[in-house]
TrEMBL record:
Belongs to the helicase family. RecQ subfamily. GO terms for cellular component: bacterial nucleoid; cytoplasm; replisome. Its cofactor is Mg(2+); Zn(2+). PANTHER family: ATP-DEPENDENT DNA HELICASE Q1 (PTHR13710:SF105), DNA HELICASE RECQ FAMILY MEMBER (PTHR13710). Transmembrane segments: none annotated. CDD domains: DEXHc_RecQ, SF2_C_RecQ. It is an enzyme of class 5 (isomerase). This is DNA helicase RecQ. GO terms for molecular function: 3'-5' DNA helicase activity; ATP binding; DNA binding; four-way junction helicase activity; hydrolase activity; metal ion binding. Residues 28-199 form the Helicase ATP-binding domain. It catalyses: Couples ATP hydrolysis with the unwinding of duplex DNA by translocating in the 3'-5' direction.
Length: 725
């Protein structure tokens, strides 16, 4: 393949695009010329095309190493569906059976396959290596190449073996592609793949259309998220959680609030995962709640928000995950919920890991925490982290820029910090430096005899909260550097040394205040109080209804239910069902007039209903109640049910009472007829029909000693079930 080919024509021909995005063309030409190539492009930048197009133009088969099976299938489908040549892309991974593997091999041998996607685990398999030796390889593409580095979020040890395997299969140009690119990761990738000479293509990582925000995570985080989604209803979004358990819980909460949401994590089988993914792409689902297993390579251009429910483990991961929003250049809101508690939890988890890994993990976490707590422009911080200088101070599209904090003059403090770093021979991390300037004689400092240095405690009179922001903003300003290869110790730069000599006014913004405890009052909303006026009106309505229907008032709704209604103001049947003691049955039978009354009352008095501010939580699904209902349907004797559920008979009755009181009909006649005399049943039934109250003690008194408490309760259940439900 000569390099004077008209690539734009080929692009149009195979993919239907009119022009290249960014540096795609230069990248492709470099590869066609047989050179190793290194591509750094943000998510959504169009990396795949950089190897897909050349593979179609070059002789032989291109091998694409890609970390996720789901991703492979997706990409193979895309390319097979997109280019007019059919069946030019195939994949090899552990999901294929023998017959499928043989077919793939046949296609490769016949020259049909231009692109072969392989999982790193498959690539390193002896039998595939043997087979591939006999194949003409056009080039190797290593997608998501950051997986080579431990300095990131999903290191894959097999990625480290790629170079030796290439050596065995046969040399060909290598193109490595990634969207996360600190200097450290970049060096790691090049070294490990043996492409230190590779030409590097680095696009700006700035995604101007993405909006970044960090919010304090309180115990009301679920409500905050539901509210956010309601305000953005119908839009596609992804919510990342760290644990599978949280993923499932949150998805359930969203579903309970009528949000089209689904859970996704590696614990689901492949079929379920791929269905969820398809449903999301087809917009049958609006919101995916997922672990980081979701999203790599998923190409949905109009994801409108990405929420981090938990603090991400690294900014690398965070940036890649947020990168999935707004790929089409449209709106993309990226909101992270941050709490110190989560941070401490993650740090604790790390304690079991090997020391080196712990150290990396901690540093990455510290970077994320710094990002979250800082009041500096988020975009500036992120880009700085990826080695890029964002020239403006205010990007106009992040929370810190839209609500800027007042800057304070920290010239003096900055000089103190810089002097400290120098005095400590550029060999200590930020927290040590802070202890040092504050003049804290910790054991560590005393061991090093640093408390004897003249710079020790130079900043003891300053605001103790100033040091973190000063250090971080000094790093951004280029006075200090963090040496990531070396435990993150602080080094001073030439600019920093100059600043000590000739300081000029240096303004910093103080960090946002985050509380240590996310259970504190931040989340405490007003506790609702009973509305006595409404309560009286509801009682009147109940009296009228009771007269009309000829049943006692308490059969309609009990006082506790009315009190609750007069507190939370339900105005729909759905909301009414959430009132204790009101089930679906009762709500439908009697509810209509009650909610109409409440609605009118709210409108007339301009009442802000707590329900409007509240979200529905997922009831701890009472399996017990479900089992009891099922057993009674099967006419199982109640004492057997109690045994089977391992509860006392009294407790069983209490459960059943709760069930019928909230409006579910239960027919226990089969059991009553078995254990009680007919006239006992009738007597008790009659008593309740006449009585002013359903109180058990009153009933026992009135009925006398002939009847046992269990009998009275059983008949009361029958009575309620038949009359009220
Ligand atoms: P990345 O792997 O960098 O995250 P993808 O390769 O998945 O990004 O591409 C992102 C989107 O950009 C895809 O929808 C792809 O079809 C589209 N795309 C790629 N190149 C072009 C191009 N030259 N013109 C228009 N769209 C493109
Ligand atoms: Mg990609």
């Amino acid at each position: 393949m000569t390099n004077d080919v008209n690539l734009t024509e080929k692009l149009k021909h195979y993919f239907g695009f009119n022009s290249f995005k960014g540096e795609q063309e230069e990248i492709i030409r470099n590869l066609l010329a047989g050179n190793d190539t290194f591509v750094l492009m943000p998510t959504g930048g169009g990396k795949s095309l950089c190897y897909q197009l050349p593979s179609l133009l070059m002789e032989g088969t291109a091998i694409v190493v890609s970390p996720l099976i789901a991703l492979m299938k997706n990409q193979v489908d895309v390319i097979n569906g997109m280019s007019e040549e059919t069946g030019v892309a195939h994949y090899l991974n552990s999901s294929l059976n023998k017959a499928a593997i043989d077919q793939v091999k046949k296609d490769i041998r016949s020259g049909l396959t231009k692109l072969l996607y392989v999982a790193p685990e498959s690539l390193t398999k002896e039998e595939y290596v043997e087979f591939l030796k006999s194949v003409k390889i056009s080039f190797y593409a290593i997608d998501e190449a950051h997986c080579i580095s431990e300095w990131g979020h999903d290191f894959r040890p097999e990625y480290r073996r790629i170079r030796p395997i290439i050596g065995q299969i046969g040399n060909a140009p290598v193109i490595a592609l990634t969207a996360t690119a600190t200097d450290k990761v970049r060096t790691d990738i090049k070294k490990s793949l043996g492409i230190t000479q590779a030409k590097e293509f680095k696009n700006s990582f700035n995604r101007p259309n993405l909006y970044y925000e960090v919010r304090q995570k309180t115990k009301d985080v679920d409500r905050d998220i539901v509210k956010f989604i309601r305000q953005n209803s119908g839009k596609s979004g992804i919510i990342y959680c760290l644990s599978r358990k949280k993923v499932e819980e949150l998805a359930a909460v969203l579903q309970a609030n009528n949000i089209k949401a689904a859970a996704y994590h590696a614990g689901f089988d492949a079929a379920t995962r791929s269905k969820t993914q398809d449903d999301f792409l087809m917009e049958k689902i609006d919101v995916i709640v997922a672990t980081i297993a979701f999203g790599m390579g998923i190409d949905k251009p109009d994801v409108r928000f990405v929420i981090h429910y938990d603090i991400p483990k690294s900014l690398e991961g965070y940036y890649q995950e947020t990168g999935r929003a707004g790929r089409d250049g449209g709106e993309g809101k990226c909101i992270a919920f941050y709490s110190r508690k989560d941070l401490h939890k993650l740090e604790k988890f790390m304690e079991g890991k090997p020391v080196a890994e712990q150290d990396i993990g901690r540093q990455l976490l510290q970077e994320t925490a710094a990002y979250a707590e800082s009041s500096v422009c988020r975009r500036k911080m992120l880009l700085h982290y990826f080695g890029e200088d964002y020239p403006k101070d205010n990007c106009g599209n992040c929370d810190n820029c839209l609500h800027p904090k007042v800057k304070i003059d920290a010239t003096k403090e900055t000089v103190i910090v810089l002097r400290a770093v120098k005095a400590l021979k550029e060999d200590f991390r930020s927290d040590y430096v802070i202890d040092f300037v504050k003049g804290r004689d910790t054991d560590d400092i005393k061991d090093h005899k640093h408390d004897l240095l003249p710079e020790f405690g130079e900043g003891e009179d300053c605001d103790i909260k100033i040091w973190n922001p000063v250090i971080r903003q000094s790093i951004i300003a280029g006075f200090l550097k963090k040496d990531v290869e070396n435990y993150g110790v602080l080094k001073i730069t030439k600019g920093g040394l100059d600043f000590i000599k000739n300081p000029y006014t240096f303004m910093v913004v103080k960090d946002a205040e985050f509380s240590e405890d996310d259970d504190d009052e931040v989340g405490e909303r007003q506790t609702a109080a009973l509305d006595p006026e409404l309560f009286a009106m509801l009682q009147d309505l109940r009296k009228d209804t009771s007269r009309k229907l000829g049943i006692p008032p308490y059969v309609i709704f009990q006082d506790v239910s009315l009190e609750q209604m007069a507190t939370v103001y339900p105005i729909s049947l759905e909301e009414l069902v959430n009132i204790p003691g009101v089930g679906v049955g009762k709500a439908h039978r009697y509810g209509k007039e009650f909610i109409a009354l409440i609605k009118r009352h709210c409108e007339e008095n301009d009442i802000e209903r707590p329900e409007d501010l509240r979200i529905r939580t997922v009831p701890k699904k009472s399996m017990l109640k479900v089992k009891i209902i099922q057993s009674i349907d099967r006419k199982m004797p109640l004492d057997d049910i109690a045994d089977a559920q391992n509860i006392d008979f009294e407790d069983l009755l209490t459960e059943i009472e709760a069930i019928v009181y909230s409006g579910t009909k239960l027919n226990i006649d089969y059991f009553l007829e078995d254990v009680m005399d007919d006239d006992h049943i009738d007597d008790i039934y009659e008593y309740f029909r006449e009585s002013e109250t359903d109180d058990l003690e009153v009933a026992m008194d009135e009925l006398g000693e002939d009847y046992t408490e269990d009998e009275v309760r059983l008949v009361r259940i029958k009575f309620f079930s038949e009359l009220a439900n």
